[in-house]
Amino acid sequence: MKDEIKKKFALWIYPSTQHKVLEHYKDDNCTSQSEFIDKAIRFYCGYLASENTHDYLPFSLSQAITGTVQVTEGRLSRLLFKLAVEMCMMMHIIAETTDLPDTYLSRLRGRCVNEVKRSTGSVKLDKAVQTHELFSEASCRESS
Question: Residue ranges of the domains in the chain?
Answer without folding.
Answer: 15-57, 58-99, 100-144
